[in-house]
Write a structure and sequence with these properties.
Blueprint: H1 3-29, H2 35-45, H3 53-63, H4 70-82, H5 97-131, H6 137-150, H7 154-168, H8 188-225, H9 228-235, H10 240-252, H11 254-265, H12 272-277, H13 283-293, H14 296-324
């Protein structure tokens, strides 16, 4: 891999990020309604004594720069971003957008990265077992169950799990990231409480995703079985377990690593509904609340994090892919 190639890919990364963030500026402003007007109307309806509602709306619009032309708002938006300032939440002023994101990001990362990696590992193993000729029949019988579950939307599966294990048998809590009124600390009791609340959301993602990974891995494994290196390994008398792991899975799993990188890049967007159903305090739930309240700054801040995360993940994957598969090269021939 040459330095020119790395510079070229990094340039493409910057173009993608700048374009996506610029579009991110426009999309929330195309939504009907005024977030400040809505907030003031809610406060007036609740009897908060806001006084002259229209006057306060005008003052807040001036404070946030929403009374300026669009091109001025755009330049101010980029100027704030380059300084690392995501601004204030329009719906929860004076809370900063950065505090909303930093408070929700660990919950999403902890839940979804763990669930996706577990789903990937189980799906790859099951897909390889489905295609391997000498695999035990008992293991093959389990795989169709996960293929059926893959056809069920993960949010619907979450509702079913919530009804079964939180309403009927009450083995797990019905929502939230931790027990109400609990002061979280870095101790075993708090860790156990957080894990207990994350089991059902994670289980809905795992059960709904394993079948898809298994189906894709099965197709790749079938194509690998006819390769010469498999026949050579069998002719040498190597153990079936070694052939399965080091000659079968190792070569068949390569295309799936790209999909894994994209799945990790979409680690938040794919769980918005799951976090809504379980009231899990992650980025997906915060994004839903911001869209519902037309909170431009929070929407923009979360989308910026998603865009940068996805672009950097794919950039890193693009750089390490030749290391994973030596047959791939980016050099000109």
């Amino acid at each position: 891999m040459t330095v020119d190639y790395i510079v070229k890919r990094f340039g493409m990364l910057l173009v993608v990020v700048v374009s996506a963030i610029s579009i991110n500026f426009l999309i929330p402003r195309l939504m009907p309604g005024d977030p400040i007007q809505n907030k003031m109307d809610q406060m007036a309806a609740m009897g908060s004594g806001v006084g002259d509602v229209q006057g306060m709306v005008d003052e807040y619009r001036k404070k946030f720069g929403l009374d300026q032309p669009m091109w001025r708002q755009f330049l101010r938006y980029w100027g704030d971003l380059l300084r690392g300032d995501l601004g204030y939440s329009l719906n929860n002023f004076p809370q900063r957008v950065s505090s909303v994101i930093t408070g929700a990001l660990p919950w999403t990362a902890g839940l979804l990265i763990t669930a996706i990696l577990l789903t990937f590992a189980l799906g790859i193993l099951m897909g390889a077992v489905m295609a391997w000729p000498t695999a035990p029949s008992a293991l093959r019988a389990v795989v169709p169950v996960f293929l059926v579950l893959h056809a069920v939307p993960y949010f619907l599966l979450g509702i079913i799990l919530l009804f079964l294990f939180a309403v009927l048998v009450r083995w797990f809590p019905g929502g939230g990231g931790y027990s109400f009124g609990t002061a979280l600390q870095f101790d075993l009791a708090s860790i156990a409480d957080v894990l207990k609340h994350s089991i059902l959301p994670a289980l809905s993602i795992v059960l709904a995703g394993v079948g898809g990974w298994a189906l894709g891995m099965r197709g790749m494994m079938v194509s690998v079985l006819g390769e010469d290196y498999i026949n050579l390994a069998e002719a040498k008398g190597l153990k079936q377990r070694r052939i399965f792991m080091w000659y079968g899975i190792r070569n068949a799993v390569l295309p799936a690593t790209t999909s894994l990188a994209m799945s990790l890049g979409h680690v938040v967007t794919g769980a918005v509904l799951v976090e809504m159903i379980f009231a899990y305090p992650g980025l997906g739930h915060q994004l839903y609340r911001a869209i519902h309240a037309k909170d431009y700054t929070v929407i923009q801040g979360i989308i910026v994090v998603l865009v940068v995360w996805l672009a950097v993940t794919l950039f890193i994957m693009d750089l390490i892919y030749p290391r994973i598969d030596p047959r791939i090269t980016y050099r000109r021939r």
